[in-house]
Hints:
Blueprint (H helix, E strand, L loop, with lengths): L18 H39 L8 H10 L25 E8 L3 H5 L12 H18 L3 H4 L3 H8 L10 E8 H10 L9 H20 L3
Antiparallel strand pairs: 1-2
Helix pairs in contact: 4-8, 6-8
Amino acid sequence: MSRFRLPARVAPSPAAEEPGLQNSAARLRSSREVQSRILAERRAPEAELSAESLEAQLPDQPSMPKREAGLAGKREGEGGPPSPLSLPPGAPAGVVSKPRKEKLVVLFRLPLATERRLEQIPGAGEVTSAYMLRAFAKEARAELRRLLAEEEIMPHADEARRIFAMSATDMAVGEAMTVYAQSSAIRAMHVALGDPWQIEPRATIVGAFLAAIASRLIEARRVR
Length: 224
């Protein structure tokens, strides 16, 4: 065994570093702090000046946004005129409201004699009778939707009365379809068919006029 013992390994002390290096690091840190402080002092007046100029350039803002002002006016009864759709029945004459359409499901059926006249229409041999009925029903629905007042339904009133009085055996097999009609026209249809109190179902009354319109269209197209 050797008589010489190795000394224990000890980590070097920071004090063992060279004094010159320690002084250089301290000077570097102090110079950076001084530069940062000087730069911050220079930027402070510029930031205040830019904020003041920005406030001077901005336009004056109203105390209340326009939307909130409009809502406040409506709450106080200063809003615009009411919508035509929301007008009551007793609205002033100067206020115009849109006509009201009603949606109905009616049974479109023609008299048997009228269906037999489809063969006399030009081009009837190229399509089926069912196709022709759908075509005339489409035109009749468009005409029904256009009718507004009593004077417009009167040309179809006589044919509608005749169809309304027919028995089921004199009518062809019908097809249910959706139609639209003006409320004023429906009231006039009830009156024209002798139902001023509107006891009969609206679908029955409107269906009679739909068949009458289609019958007149067929009569106008057939070859005599």
